[in-house]
Amino acid sequence: MHTRTRTTALALALAAGLALSACAGDDQAEFAQDPPSGSEAAPSTGQEQATDESQSGDGAAEQTEEPTTVEPAAERTVEVEESESVSTEEVAFTLTLHRLAVHDYYLEAEVTVVNDGTEALNTWYGSGNGSTEPRVFDDRGRVYPFVVQAGGDGQRLVLEPGQGVNAGLVFPGRLDPDAEQVTLDFEALGPEWEGLLFEVPLGAAS
Fold it and tell me: What is the distance between the alpha carbons of residues 48 and 134, in angstroms, rounded to a whole number?
């Protein structure tokens, strides 16, 4: 707003200078128009020149671009009910993916982890940097990072022998409309989680 005000004032001063030159008989008088017969010339406001300067040249006003609208994803729920069991000398556990829900701007995976071993089991850690957390990626190359549950920042979920947990894992981001499959990846949780991937084909939105 301030830039437009200064541009108009400059145009007024310039218009006044042109009018004075025309009265003095200088060559610049060719810019002035003769008033209609029997009437006086209307005083120049400089509005026309200010408008031209606001649209071109160094004094051009910046155009405000409209923000890009991100459409929500089509909501759907894919039933999976797939389990993976791991048994080594150090750990034994079962991981089940029950379903994956596509919401407007995030994905949610409902899982169950049960510690079948005799030692404590380390699961995901709320580091916030993806280094020790599950993740989701789709077949279009987009990655959806894990969001730690409230109060879980900087803490690892540890299951004692015989313990289990039902969890809803949230991954923010709008699902790519062209994605046909997503993969839930737990390999970053540690060596014992290597190979724990769930590939989930996406059905049509209901």
Answer: 62
Q: Is 142 helix (H, G, I), strand (E, B) or coil?
A: coil
Q: Is the pLDDT of residue 31 over 50?
A: no
- Contact indicator for 77, 100 with CB cutoff of 8 Å: yes
Q: pTM of this prediction?
A: 0.63
Contact assessment for residue 158 and residue 121, using Cβ atoms and an 8 Å cutoff: yes
Q: Is a pLDDT exceeding 80 seen at residue 30?
A: no
Per-range mean pLDDT, top range of 1-15, 65-79, 146-160:
65-79
**Cα–Cα distance list, 105 to 45, 68, 81, 174, 175 (Å):** 52, 15, 24, 4, 7
Cα pseudo-dihedral 75, 97, 134, 100, rounded to 10: 0
Beta strands in the chain (DSSP E): 76-87, 92-102, 106-115, 121-125, 135-138, 143-144, 156-159, 164-172, 181-185, 197-201
**Residue 93: CB partners within 8 Å, gap ≥ 6?**
85, 86, 113, 114, 115, 116, 117, 121, 159
Closest CA to 184 of 93, 92, 113: 113
The amino acid that residue 152 corresponds to is: G
> Which distant-in-sequence residues (6+ apart) come within 8 Å of 174 by Cβ?
70, 71, 72, 73, 104, 105
- Position 183 pLDDT exceeds 60: yes
